[in-house]
């Protein structure tokens, strides 16, 4: 889970603060609060509570809620709660992926979590499909709601993940140059 922390710090370092206006979530604000949540169980709990109250079924928000559940697992000292929150996270993010299977950001959220989970938990079975979908969306230049900085940071994470073949690494490096 330490790598999960690093992934989100790396990814969201340049993003913007969570607010709820008329029960709608500003994704750029949510990204900034996710960065804060990584370093603060209090922020994780607060953001988790706020998102839970909105009861939004927007797939990207659901994926971030699943990421918060993973952070709650990281922050828990109780092994039962760690597993409980990881299973909830897995279920929530799966719902988000099923609702929006081509959303690169949702796939990346799941990829970044699963990359950092111990293999013996059996919760990292979607790494290849997520990576392949992310690469496909990059080829199509279908970035969804992700801005240029987010996409660049996602590419850096993929390059450092040790999950990519030499051909995929070459493609990602080319994409990184194009986005500069």
CATH class: Mainly Alpha
CATH architecture descriptor name: Alpha Horseshoe
Query: Approximately how much helix is present in the residues?
Result: over 70%
- Strand order within the widest sheet? 1-2
Q: SSE order, as H and E? A: HEEHHHHHHHH
- Structural class label: mainly alpha
Major sheet attributes: 2 strands, antiparallel
Verbal overview:
The protein is an all-alpha fold and 180 residues long. The protein has a single domain, classed as Alpha Horseshoe (Serine Threonine Protein Phosphatase 5, Tetratricopeptide repeat), CATH 1.25.40. The protein contains 9 helices and 2 strands. A two-stranded antiparallel ribbon has the order 1-2. A hairpin with a 2-residue loop joins strand 1 (20-21) and strand 2. It is globular and about 40 Å long. The chain starts with a helix and ends with a helix. Mean pLDDT is 86; it is low at 9-24.
Offer a quick outline of the entry.
Helix content is 72%, strand content 2%. By secondary structure, the chain is an all-alpha fold.
How would the blueprint of this fold be written?
Elements: H1 2-12, E1 20-21, E2 24-25, H2 27-39, H3 41-54, H4 59-75, H5 79-99, H6 104-115, H7 127-140, H8 148-160, H9 166-179
Antiparallel strand pairs: 1-2
Summary tags:
about 180 residues, mainly alpha, Serine Threonine Protein Phosphatase 5, Tetratricopeptide repeat, two-stranded antiparallel sheet, globular
